[in-house]
Each structure stands twice: as structure tokens, then as C-alpha cells.
Amino acid sequence: MSSAQDKAGPSGSSPPPTEGPSQPASQARARRRRHRTARPNPYNVNPVERQGIEENQQVLFLANHEHIVGLFYQEREDHLELRSHKRSIELDDRIEGRLMKLGLIHILKVKHVNIDMPLLKAMVEFWRPETHTFHFPVGEMTVTLKDVAFIYGLRTEGIPVRGNTKGPWEEKIRAQLFPHANLGNWARETSEEAGARRNIKLKWLRENCGRVPAPGASDDELDRYTRAVAVELFGTLMFPDISQNSVPAYYLELVSGNLNEVPDINWGGATLASLYRGLDRAAMRFKTVTGPLMLLLFWAWSYLPVCRPTVAPITDLGQPSIDSCVPFGRKWGETRSFLGSHHRGPVENARDQIAVLDMEDVN
């Protein structure tokens, strides 16, 4: 059996064209091969030619001794707007028991923190959508399903997150959430096609939820309230979109019907996919980037010393049991001090810290 080098000749170049019908095909392959390899290095072209090179592909043209961070030092502006969300609907033991059956209770034990935007903006600069990894000078790293399970406590096995993205949403909201609510101002249109996709306004959702159902409330009422908590959770901590004040209505499909019969869903996989999508948007120069940014922040603090805070021990663990396990992300929600960490300042400082990391620095 001949090797690829035998076919290409001793020097690895294209074989000479042959006579007959195969000649055009051979020439086409040679042209494609030249097109793939004869690409300019961005550092060696004039500014006019450089504008024609796609920014999100420049890493492919770097020399062996160069790293993508050099591009950002030379020409990148801090243009990203990172958006994070915070959930606020109240819970009690009855609601938590239902969320436990859905596999969503552990993430609710993770406390909200203010996002370190300079750190995340610096990390975004090292993200490559081709590999879904951070190309740090010290090596490649990425967030994995195992990280999602440890940090958020989400299930990483089961059926994929999927559902119907078509309405009519008014009927579904009345049936699954609020049968007597005023639906006059519940939605924000997100498509030219009326009703094709609508977002539930978070303010409207929280106002209609009100307080936790009173003692003696029916199972149906408790289920409705639990669905509202889950929908808010989907749109804030797990897979939010670029809107700051609304949640896609189709998330309601994930927890519709009898909550006792909802199958085991791979919430962790969907959350990780949402994070990858948000980072891909950033790499492609979208101005607004979203996703589970708190997950990314906790991952960075867990593995990198850049702006890592000191935390107080967790004291309110409750009774030890598999149901009361506290996810690792809870650690970062305790009392924090940034003394000794590098900064909470400009993105350039965080970028400098990442650029000089050694293998010994990475946990």
C-alpha cells in the first residue's frame, strides 16, 4: 500500500499532471493545495492587505514562535459587552423537593457573585471556536462536562435538551404557569414572523409568581410555581440569550406536563453548549456576548491564579446526604477577599497575567 508521501512525490509536492481524463482533477487538487498553504502571515503584510484577512482566522497564520495574544496587544480594542443574569424567585422546601426531581436543585445552591468582566474579557481573547478551547501560551484548556457537574452540580447524562419552538405561547403559559394572569404585556417579540419565537419578560414572570404558595396550596399550584422557577433558572444561570430582561418562551416546554414524569435530561450538556456558543460569538467579534458566565468565572478561579479571591470556609452544609450535596461552585459565593490577587482592574492587566502563566501555576 502506498503512503501519502509516495503519492505526492519525495518532496511532498503535487504529482505531475498525467494525460487523459484525470488531468483536470489533478490540476484542481494542486490548486486547492496551493490555496491552503500559500497564505500570508498577518505580521508580514501591509495594512491594506491585512484588512482583507478574517480576524477570527488570524491565529491560523501565526509563526511557530508567535501566539495569538500578540494580535490583541497590537490592535484589539475592548469592545465586548458581557451580560450576566441573576435569579430572584423565592423557594421553600416544597419547591426544592420538586426541583430535586428535575435535577435542578444543586445549581440553586450556588450563590451569585459579581462577574469579573476584565478577567472574562481577557479569557475570551484566547478562545478558538475551531477547537472550543482556550489557546493560552501555557497550553490549551477548556471547560468540560466534568467541570459543569462539579461547579454547578448539573446532570451530564440523559436525553438532550430539546423542545418545540412554535406557539401559541399564550395558551401554553395559561396551561402551565399562570391560568389567571394578564397576558397583555408578557412577551417581547424576537422574530419578524409573529409568534414564531417570543421571550417571556423576566419582570412579568416574577411579578406573576409573587411569593411562595401558601401552606396548604394544591400540588397543581406548586407545580406551576416550580415551572416558573425553572424557566427563570434556564434563562439566567444555565443558557441565557443576549436579552437582559427576558427568557425564551420555548424553555417552558422542558418542564411541561406532570413534573413527576419529566425524564432525566442532560442539563449539564446544554449548559456547556450554551457557554461554547457564547464564547464562539465573542471570537467572531459579536459585540454582545452572553451565556453561563458565572460558570466560566468559577472555572477560571478554580484552575487559574488570575484574580482568584480568597474565600471563607462553607459552614452551612446541612445534613450530609446525596440530595444535599453542595456543588463546588458554592465555594466562590462565600466571603471573598481579593487581597493578593492581581487586580480587579483593566482587561490589559488580566491579559498580562494569563500570558505569563506557567504549567506550575495551573491547578
Automatic annotation (TrEMBL):
The lineage of its organism: Eukaryota, Viridiplantae, Streptophyta, Embryophyta, Tracheophyta. Residues 103-362 form the Aminotransferase-like plant mobile domain. Residues 29-38 have a biased composition (Basic residues). Residues 1-47 are annotated as: Disordered. PANTHER family: OS11G0534500 PROTEIN, PROTEIN MAIN-LIKE 2. This is Aminotransferase-like plant mobile domain-containing protein. It comes from the Eukaryota. GO terms for biological process: meristem maintenance. InterPro entries: AminoTfrase-like_pln_mobile, MAIN-like. Pfam families: PMD. It comes from Rhynchospora breviuscula.
